[in-house]
Amino acid sequence: MWSTVNLGVADVLWALLALSFLVAFCAHKISTYLPRKYETCRFYVLFQDLIRYGKTKQNLKRDEWLRVFDVPKRWFWHFYAVSVGWNGLLLGLYVNVTFRNQSYPSWLTGILDILTDVPNPDSQVPQLSTLLVQLLLCLHSLRRLLECLLVSVFSDGAIHLVQYVFGLGYYVVLGLTVLCADRLGKGTGTLFSQLDWFHVSGTALFIGASLLQHQSMVLLARLRTGKSGAVETLAHRVPKGGWFELVSCPHYFAELLIYISLSLLFGGLSLTWWLVVFYVLFNQALAAQLCHDLYIIKYESYPRHRKAFIPFVL
Ligand SMILES: NC(=O)c1ccc[n+]([C@@H]2O[C@H](COP(=O)([O-])OP(=O)(O)OC[C@H]3O[C@@H](n4cnc5c(N)ncnc54)[C@H](OP(=O)(O)O)[C@@H]3O)[C@@H](O)[C@H]2O)c1
Which pTM was predicted? Predict the structure, then answer.
């Protein structure tokens, strides 16, 4: 069975990223049982500095020199601006290849050749899937860009320079990963004739998860604004309403659902995309756990029934 699985560079990359965040999640869980004296250990502080950002980083006791690598968290919009531009370009190029029988520019073919191994004909996805995933990825990035600029109220939280550079590269590699799933360009008949049940269910899940994420971002912003919409405080408060009644971070749960919906759009056929889903699962689980732990320590009356990330589960 394993001999039929051809792993390309993109698969290995996403698998390693998923594994790194799984290890980081487990290491964080274990570190909560360590005696307090380890909190001043250099390796512990460096590890915490790299996995935390924003509010979960504020109480981390670290040397002054480590603050040199702090980048404002309000620069989150840079990631989505890069994503809209880059993934819009890739969408345009894919449309050219699909409808105008043109080929990719040589630099893109070169990159895709490096990222993918010999494509397995059985795991090829319809062109309609690739087009929809590219389109929804652009829409997702555009919504997040507008939310960062027009909805969210940022405090003076920081992210690590490494996290910032990673975030910039993340959406570039993600767009290339979408094209990796479609190296053989399987497309028989019109796009409409390729339409399948998984395109409809994937799009429906994407819309539902996007609405949940947007609602959560609005509720977070309202914790800092008055009825007129004017910013009244930059403090962190206990989130209320919507799915915040079930989990501390419904916007992270929604992010996971969005990536699952894109996997559904691929008909569940892209191993590479499932590895992306696992990366998002472990990455967001870690961020949610850090946030949940902070709320429990900081707010005595924090609802104990709330889970961190996945309602009723985690
Ligand atoms: N796919 C990925 O790899 C990935 C990675 C990271 C994030 N994301 C997504 O990006 C989105 C944003 O993530 P994030 O980590 O920035 O979310 P976040 O820390 O919850 O911050 C979102 C906004 O809400 C504010 N906020 C957070 N908690 C608050 C509280 N208790 N009281 C008042 N305001 C609060 C934040 O302000 P501050 O300035 O004070 O923080 C920020 O403006 C999420 O939907 C997440 O899923 C995706």
Answer: 0.96
